[in-house]
Amino acid sequence: MWVVQNYPVPEKVMMRKRVPIPAEWRVNFLLNQYSLSRRLGYLLSCVVLVLLPVFTIFDATLVGYSNEESVWKHIVLRLPTAILAIIFLVLYHNKTQGYWAYPLLLALNLSLVGMVAAMFALHYTEQGGHLLYITQGLTLAIIAVATATVYGVRDLAIIYGLPFLAVVALLAYTGSTLPDNPIHLIFIPAAMGIGAVIATMLHQEHQRTFMASQQLEYNALTDALTGLPNRRSMQTQLQAEWSHAKRNEQCFAVLMADLDRFKAVNDQHGHEVGDEVLTILASRFTTSLRGGDRVARWGGEEFLLLIPNATPESALAVAEKVRRSVAEPAFATSAGSLAITLSLGVALYREVESIDEVISRADKALYRAKLEGRNRAVLADG
Protein backbone atom coordinates (compact mmCIF):
# COMPACT_ATOMS: atom_id res chain seq x y z
CA MET A 1 0.00 0.00 0.00
CA TRP A 2 1.03 3.59 -0.68
CA VAL A 3 0.18 6.48 1.65
CA VAL A 4 -0.70 9.69 -0.21
CA GLN A 5 -1.94 12.67 1.80
CA ASN A 6 -2.68 10.31 4.71
CA TYR A 7 -4.78 7.96 2.59
CA PRO A 8 -3.60 4.48 1.60
CA VAL A 9 -3.39 3.92 -2.16
CA PRO A 10 -3.12 0.38 -3.56
CA GLU A 11 0.10 -0.21 -5.48
CA LYS A 12 -1.77 -1.34 -8.61
CA VAL A 13 -3.54 2.06 -8.69
CA MET A 14 -0.19 3.82 -8.28
CA MET A 15 1.18 1.86 -11.23
CA ARG A 16 -1.84 2.62 -13.39
CA LYS A 17 -2.69 6.23 -12.62
CA ARG A 18 -0.88 9.49 -12.00
CA VAL A 19 -1.09 10.09 -8.25
CA PRO A 20 -0.59 13.74 -7.20
CA ILE A 21 2.52 14.52 -5.18
CA PRO A 22 1.48 15.14 -1.53
CA ALA A 23 1.90 18.76 -0.46
CA GLU A 24 4.54 17.90 2.15
CA TRP A 25 6.69 16.21 -0.51
CA ARG A 26 6.46 18.86 -3.24
CA VAL A 27 9.62 20.73 -2.24
CA ASN A 28 11.58 17.46 -2.29
CA PHE A 29 9.99 16.57 -5.63
CA LEU A 30 11.08 19.93 -7.07
CA LEU A 31 14.65 19.32 -5.85
CA ASN A 32 14.47 15.83 -7.34
CA GLN A 33 13.44 17.33 -10.70
CA TYR A 34 16.39 19.74 -10.57
CA SER A 35 18.72 16.80 -9.93
CA LEU A 36 17.12 14.85 -12.80
CA SER A 37 17.55 17.87 -15.08
CA ARG A 38 21.26 18.00 -14.24
CA ARG A 39 21.76 14.32 -15.05
CA LEU A 40 19.74 14.37 -18.27
CA GLY A 41 21.37 17.61 -19.40
CA TYR A 42 24.83 16.23 -18.76
CA LEU A 43 24.16 13.09 -20.81
CA LEU A 44 22.47 15.01 -23.63
CA SER A 45 25.31 17.56 -23.75
CA CYS A 46 27.91 14.80 -24.04
CA VAL A 47 25.95 13.08 -26.80
CA VAL A 48 25.50 16.36 -28.68
CA LEU A 49 29.17 17.31 -28.55
CA VAL A 50 30.23 13.83 -29.70
CA LEU A 51 27.67 13.35 -32.46
CA LEU A 52 27.38 16.90 -33.79
CA PRO A 53 30.83 16.91 -35.51
CA VAL A 54 30.23 13.37 -36.79
CA PHE A 55 26.90 14.30 -38.38
CA THR A 56 28.34 17.55 -39.73
CA ILE A 57 31.03 15.62 -41.60
CA PHE A 58 28.49 12.98 -42.65
CA ASP A 59 26.09 15.69 -43.83
CA ALA A 60 28.79 17.46 -45.83
CA THR A 61 29.87 14.18 -47.44
CA LEU A 62 26.39 12.91 -48.28
CA VAL A 63 24.59 16.11 -49.16
CA GLY A 64 27.45 18.27 -50.31
CA TYR A 65 27.43 22.04 -50.16
CA SER A 66 27.08 23.97 -53.38
CA ASN A 67 29.03 27.00 -52.17
CA GLU A 68 30.78 28.55 -49.18
CA GLU A 69 27.57 30.31 -48.16
CA SER A 70 25.82 26.94 -47.67
CA VAL A 71 28.71 25.71 -45.53
CA TRP A 72 28.47 28.67 -43.18
CA LYS A 73 24.67 28.45 -43.14
CA HIS A 74 24.83 24.86 -41.84
CA ILE A 75 27.57 25.70 -39.33
CA VAL A 76 25.53 28.61 -37.93
CA LEU A 77 22.50 26.32 -37.57
CA ARG A 78 24.54 23.91 -35.42
CA LEU A 79 26.34 26.55 -33.36
CA PRO A 80 23.61 27.40 -30.75
CA THR A 81 23.17 23.74 -29.81
CA ALA A 82 26.92 23.26 -29.40
CA ILE A 83 27.22 26.42 -27.28
CA LEU A 84 24.35 25.40 -25.00
CA ALA A 85 25.88 21.93 -24.54
CA ILE A 86 29.25 23.46 -23.60
CA ILE A 87 27.60 25.88 -21.13
CA PHE A 88 25.73 22.99 -19.52
CA LEU A 89 28.90 20.93 -19.06
CA VAL A 90 30.80 23.90 -17.60
CA LEU A 91 28.05 24.59 -15.05
CA TYR A 92 27.71 20.90 -14.26
CA HIS A 93 31.43 20.41 -13.61
CA ASN A 94 31.57 23.59 -11.52
CA LYS A 95 28.82 21.95 -9.41
CA THR A 96 26.68 25.06 -9.73
CA GLN A 97 23.46 24.47 -7.77
CA GLY A 98 20.05 26.00 -8.37
CA TYR A 99 17.22 26.17 -10.82
CA TRP A 100 19.39 26.67 -13.92
CA ALA A 101 19.52 23.00 -15.00
CA TYR A 102 15.86 22.65 -15.98
CA PRO A 103 15.51 25.74 -18.22
CA LEU A 104 18.92 25.07 -19.76
CA LEU A 105 17.94 21.46 -20.51
CA LEU A 106 14.70 22.73 -22.04
CA ALA A 107 16.66 25.22 -24.17
CA LEU A 108 19.11 22.50 -25.24
CA ASN A 109 16.29 20.19 -26.32
CA LEU A 110 14.56 23.06 -28.13
CA SER A 111 17.76 24.08 -29.93
CA LEU A 112 18.37 20.47 -31.00
CA VAL A 113 14.93 20.07 -32.57
CA GLY A 114 15.06 23.63 -33.88
CA MET A 115 18.42 22.94 -35.56
CA VAL A 116 17.18 19.88 -37.45
CA ALA A 117 13.84 21.57 -38.21
CA ALA A 118 15.70 24.57 -39.70
CA MET A 119 17.78 22.22 -41.87
CA PHE A 120 14.56 20.50 -42.94
CA ALA A 121 13.00 23.85 -43.87
CA LEU A 122 16.14 24.86 -45.73
CA HIS A 123 16.16 21.71 -47.87
CA TYR A 124 12.38 21.89 -48.31
CA THR A 125 12.40 25.42 -49.68
CA GLU A 126 15.31 24.57 -51.95
CA GLN A 127 13.54 21.32 -53.00
CA GLY A 128 16.85 19.48 -52.70
CA GLY A 129 17.18 15.84 -53.44
CA HIS A 130 18.10 14.98 -49.86
CA LEU A 131 14.80 15.96 -48.21
CA LEU A 132 14.12 12.33 -47.22
CA TYR A 133 17.49 12.14 -45.44
CA ILE A 134 16.80 15.38 -43.51
CA THR A 135 13.25 14.23 -42.69
CA GLN A 136 14.63 11.04 -41.17
CA GLY A 137 17.09 13.11 -39.13
CA LEU A 138 14.27 15.31 -37.85
CA THR A 139 12.20 12.24 -36.98
CA LEU A 140 15.07 10.76 -34.95
CA ALA A 141 15.70 14.08 -33.17
CA ILE A 142 12.00 14.39 -32.27
CA ILE A 143 11.98 10.93 -30.68
CA ALA A 144 15.41 11.32 -29.05
CA VAL A 145 14.63 14.53 -27.14
CA ALA A 146 11.51 12.91 -25.68
CA THR A 147 13.81 10.76 -23.54
CA ALA A 148 15.49 13.87 -22.10
CA THR A 149 12.39 15.66 -20.78
CA VAL A 150 11.61 16.25 -17.12
CA TYR A 151 7.91 17.14 -17.18
CA GLY A 152 6.81 15.00 -20.11
CA VAL A 153 4.28 16.45 -22.56
CA ARG A 154 4.46 19.85 -20.85
CA ASP A 155 8.07 20.15 -22.02
CA LEU A 156 7.30 18.75 -25.46
CA ALA A 157 4.64 21.41 -26.04
CA ILE A 158 7.54 23.89 -26.14
CA ILE A 159 10.20 21.64 -27.69
CA TYR A 160 7.96 20.49 -30.54
CA GLY A 161 5.55 23.41 -30.76
CA LEU A 162 7.91 26.33 -31.38
CA PRO A 163 9.99 24.72 -34.18
CA PHE A 164 6.85 23.29 -35.79
CA LEU A 165 5.14 26.69 -35.86
CA ALA A 166 8.31 28.34 -37.16
CA VAL A 167 8.68 25.82 -40.01
CA VAL A 168 5.01 26.10 -41.01
CA ALA A 169 5.25 29.90 -40.98
CA LEU A 170 8.42 29.84 -43.09
CA LEU A 171 6.97 27.44 -45.66
CA ALA A 172 3.80 29.50 -45.87
CA TYR A 173 5.83 32.70 -46.29
CA THR A 174 7.96 31.25 -49.09
CA GLY A 175 4.94 29.69 -50.78
CA SER A 176 6.50 26.22 -50.83
CA THR A 177 4.43 23.40 -52.30
CA LEU A 178 4.37 19.71 -51.44
CA PRO A 179 7.29 17.66 -52.79
CA ASP A 180 6.75 15.05 -55.49
CA ASN A 181 6.68 12.25 -52.89
CA PRO A 182 5.13 13.73 -49.72
CA ILE A 183 4.42 10.38 -48.04
CA HIS A 184 7.57 10.51 -45.91
CA LEU A 185 6.36 13.75 -44.28
CA ILE A 186 3.93 11.60 -42.28
CA PHE A 187 6.96 10.43 -40.26
CA ILE A 188 7.16 13.81 -38.51
CA PRO A 189 3.71 13.89 -36.80
CA ALA A 190 4.06 10.15 -36.13
CA ALA A 191 7.39 10.80 -34.38
CA MET A 192 5.75 13.55 -32.31
CA GLY A 193 3.08 11.10 -31.19
CA ILE A 194 5.68 8.47 -30.28
CA GLY A 195 7.73 11.12 -28.47
CA ALA A 196 4.68 12.24 -26.47
CA VAL A 197 4.03 8.64 -25.36
CA ILE A 198 7.68 8.11 -24.39
CA ALA A 199 7.88 11.41 -22.48
CA THR A 200 4.63 10.70 -20.63
CA MET A 201 5.73 7.21 -19.62
CA LEU A 202 9.13 8.45 -18.43
CA HIS A 203 7.57 11.30 -16.43
CA GLN A 204 5.16 8.91 -14.74
CA GLU A 205 8.03 6.54 -13.98
CA HIS A 206 10.03 9.41 -12.46
CA GLN A 207 7.04 10.23 -10.26
CA ARG A 208 6.58 6.61 -9.19
CA THR A 209 10.28 6.27 -8.38
CA PHE A 210 10.21 9.47 -6.33
CA MET A 211 7.04 8.43 -4.49
CA ALA A 212 8.52 5.01 -3.71
CA SER A 213 11.70 6.61 -2.36
CA GLN A 214 9.78 9.09 -0.23
CA GLN A 215 7.45 6.37 1.04
CA LEU A 216 10.40 4.23 2.12
CA GLU A 217 11.92 7.19 3.95
CA TYR A 218 8.55 8.04 5.51
CA ASN A 219 8.11 4.46 6.72
CA ALA A 220 11.64 4.37 8.13
CA LEU A 221 11.09 7.54 10.18
CA THR A 222 7.42 7.17 11.16
CA ASP A 223 5.66 5.08 13.77
CA ALA A 224 3.23 2.87 11.88
CA LEU A 225 0.50 2.95 14.55
CA THR A 226 0.33 6.62 15.55
CA GLY A 227 1.74 8.29 12.46
CA LEU A 228 4.13 10.27 14.66
CA PRO A 229 7.88 10.40 14.04
CA ASN A 230 9.62 7.38 15.56
CA ARG A 231 12.65 7.21 17.85
CA ARG A 232 15.10 7.23 14.96
CA SER A 233 13.55 10.36 13.50
CA MET A 234 13.51 12.14 16.86
CA GLN A 235 17.16 11.30 17.50
CA THR A 236 18.03 13.13 14.28
CA GLN A 237 15.93 16.14 15.36
CA LEU A 238 17.49 16.10 18.84
CA GLN A 239 20.98 16.11 17.35
CA ALA A 240 20.11 19.05 15.10
CA GLU A 241 18.56 21.00 17.99
CA TRP A 242 21.52 20.23 20.27
CA SER A 243 23.96 21.53 17.64
CA HIS A 244 21.83 24.62 17.08
CA ALA A 245 21.62 25.31 20.82
CA LYS A 246 25.38 24.98 21.28
CA ARG A 247 26.13 27.19 18.31
CA ASN A 248 23.69 29.96 19.30
CA GLU A 249 23.92 29.59 23.09
CA GLN A 250 20.23 28.81 23.33
CA CYS A 251 18.23 26.34 25.39
CA PHE A 252 15.76 23.60 24.57
CA ALA A 253 13.64 21.31 26.68
CA VAL A 254 13.02 17.57 26.53
CA LEU A 255 9.72 16.22 27.88
CA MET A 256 9.39 12.50 28.58
CA ALA A 257 5.70 11.54 28.66
CA ASP A 258 4.29 8.20 29.74
CA LEU A 259 0.68 7.01 29.94
CA ASP A 260 -0.48 6.19 33.45
CA ARG A 261 -1.54 2.59 34.11
CA PHE A 262 -1.54 1.77 30.40
CA LYS A 263 -0.86 -1.91 31.14
CA ALA A 264 -4.23 -2.07 32.90
CA VAL A 265 -5.94 -0.80 29.71
CA ASN A 266 -4.34 -3.57 27.68
CA ASP A 267 -5.11 -6.23 30.32
CA GLN A 268 -8.76 -5.22 30.77
CA HIS A 269 -9.75 -4.25 27.23
CA GLY A 270 -7.18 -5.88 24.95
CA HIS A 271 -4.35 -4.57 22.85
CA GLU A 272 -6.69 -3.36 20.09
CA VAL A 273 -8.21 -0.85 22.51
CA GLY A 274 -4.72 0.01 23.71
CA ASP A 275 -3.79 0.82 20.12
CA GLU A 276 -6.87 3.06 19.86
CA VAL A 277 -5.74 4.93 22.97
CA LEU A 278 -2.27 5.48 21.52
CA THR A 279 -3.73 6.74 18.25
CA ILE A 280 -6.04 9.21 20.02
CA LEU A 281 -3.15 10.31 22.22
CA ALA A 282 -1.03 11.08 19.15
CA SER A 283 -3.83 13.24 17.77
CA ARG A 284 -4.08 15.19 21.02
CA PHE A 285 -0.35 15.73 21.07
CA THR A 286 -0.34 17.26 17.60
CA THR A 287 -3.31 19.56 18.31
CA SER A 288 -2.00 20.83 21.66
CA LEU A 289 1.63 21.52 20.72
CA ARG A 290 2.91 24.80 19.28
CA GLY A 291 4.12 25.04 15.70
CA GLY A 292 7.83 24.57 16.40
CA ASP A 293 7.43 21.86 19.05
CA ARG A 294 7.96 18.22 18.05
CA VAL A 295 6.79 14.90 19.42
CA ALA A 296 7.75 11.32 18.69
CA ARG A 297 6.81 7.89 19.93
CA TRP A 298 9.86 6.89 21.93
CA GLY A 299 8.76 3.33 22.64
CA GLY A 300 5.65 1.52 23.90
CA GLU A 301 3.47 4.05 25.71
CA GLU A 302 6.36 6.49 26.15
CA PHE A 303 6.67 9.67 24.07
CA LEU A 304 9.37 12.32 23.81
CA LEU A 305 8.61 15.98 23.18
CA LEU A 306 11.21 18.50 22.00
CA ILE A 307 10.60 22.17 22.85
CA PRO A 308 13.03 24.62 21.16
CA ASN A 309 13.95 28.00 22.72
CA ALA A 310 12.56 26.93 26.09
CA THR A 311 12.66 28.36 29.58
CA PRO A 312 11.63 26.41 32.69
CA GLU A 313 8.35 28.32 32.73
CA SER A 314 7.53 27.83 29.04
CA ALA A 315 8.50 24.14 29.11
CA LEU A 316 6.28 23.48 32.14
CA ALA A 317 3.46 25.44 30.51
CA VAL A 318 3.66 23.19 27.42
CA ALA A 319 3.79 20.08 29.65
CA GLU A 320 0.70 21.24 31.56
CA LYS A 321 -1.18 22.01 28.37
CA VAL A 322 -0.41 18.55 27.01
CA ARG A 323 -1.32 16.89 30.30
CA ARG A 324 -4.69 18.65 30.44
CA SER A 325 -5.48 17.86 26.80
CA VAL A 326 -4.96 14.15 27.57
CA ALA A 327 -6.86 14.13 30.87
CA GLU A 328 -10.01 15.70 29.43
CA PRO A 329 -12.16 14.73 27.69
CA ALA A 330 -12.19 10.96 28.15
CA PHE A 331 -10.93 8.81 25.27
CA ALA A 332 -13.77 7.49 23.10
CA THR A 333 -12.79 3.89 22.24
CA SER A 334 -14.58 0.76 21.06
CA ALA A 335 -14.64 -0.32 24.73
CA GLY A 336 -16.39 2.92 25.73
CA SER A 337 -15.07 6.12 27.25
CA LEU A 338 -11.81 5.65 29.12
CA ALA A 339 -10.22 8.10 31.55
CA ILE A 340 -6.59 8.38 30.49
CA THR A 341 -3.89 10.44 32.18
CA LEU A 342 -0.30 11.27 31.43
CA SER A 343 2.80 11.89 33.52
CA LEU A 344 5.64 14.04 32.25
CA GLY A 345 9.23 14.72 33.18
CA VAL A 346 10.73 18.00 32.00
CA ALA A 347 14.47 18.68 31.58
CA LEU A 348 16.17 21.74 30.10
CA TYR A 349 19.44 21.46 28.23
CA ARG A 350 22.51 22.64 30.10
CA GLU A 351 25.54 23.80 28.14
CA VAL A 352 27.89 21.01 29.25
CA GLU A 353 25.39 18.19 28.69
CA SER A 354 25.05 15.64 25.95
CA ILE A 355 21.66 14.73 24.50
CA ASP A 356 21.62 11.45 26.43
CA GLU A 357 22.21 13.30 29.68
CA VAL A 358 19.28 15.65 29.06
CA ILE A 359 17.03 12.67 28.27
CA SER A 360 18.26 10.86 31.37
CA ARG A 361 17.29 13.81 33.61
CA ALA A 362 13.88 14.01 31.93
CA ASP A 363 13.45 10.28 32.58
CA LYS A 364 14.27 10.75 36.27
CA ALA A 365 11.79 13.61 36.49
CA LEU A 366 9.15 11.36 34.88
CA TYR A 367 9.88 8.70 37.50
CA ARG A 368 9.33 11.31 40.22
CA ALA A 369 6.01 12.30 38.61
CA LYS A 370 4.92 8.66 38.83
CA LEU A 371 5.97 8.40 42.48
CA GLU A 372 4.19 11.63 43.41
CA GLY A 373 0.83 10.34 42.21
CA ARG A 374 0.85 10.44 38.39
CA ASN A 375 -1.09 12.81 36.12
CA ARG A 376 1.41 15.62 36.64
CA ALA A 377 4.46 17.30 35.14
CA VAL A 378 7.70 17.51 37.13
CA LEU A 379 10.72 19.69 36.34
CA ALA A 380 14.09 17.97 36.64
CA ASP A 381 16.56 19.21 39.25
CA GLY A 382 19.20 21.72 38.29
TrEMBL record:
Cofactors that this protein relies on: Mg(2+)
GO terms (BP aspect): cell adhesion involved in single-species biofilm formation; negative regulation of bacterial-type flagellum-dependent cell motility
Organism this protein belongs to: Vreelandella boliviensis LC1
UniProt enzyme class: transferase
CDD domains listed in its UniProt record: GGDEF
S-adenosyl-L-methionine as UniProt keyword: no
Transmembrane segments: 40-63, 75-92, 104-124, 130-151, 158-176, 182-202
EC number: 2.7.7.65
Pfam families to which the protein is assigned, alphabetical: GGDEF
GO molecular function: diguanylate cyclase activity
Full protein name: diguanylate cyclase
Classification via InterPro entries: Diguanylate_Cyclase, GGDEF_dom, Nucleotide_cyclase, Rev_trsase/Diguanyl_cyclase
Record field: catalytic activity: 2 GTP = 3',3'-c-di-GMP + 2 diphosphate
Keywords, in A-Z order: Membrane, Transmembrane, Transmembrane helix
Gene3D superfamilies according to UniProt: 3.30.70.270
Domain GGDEF: 250-382
UniProt cross-references to PROSITE patterns, sorted A to Z: GGDEF
GO cellular component, one term: plasma membrane
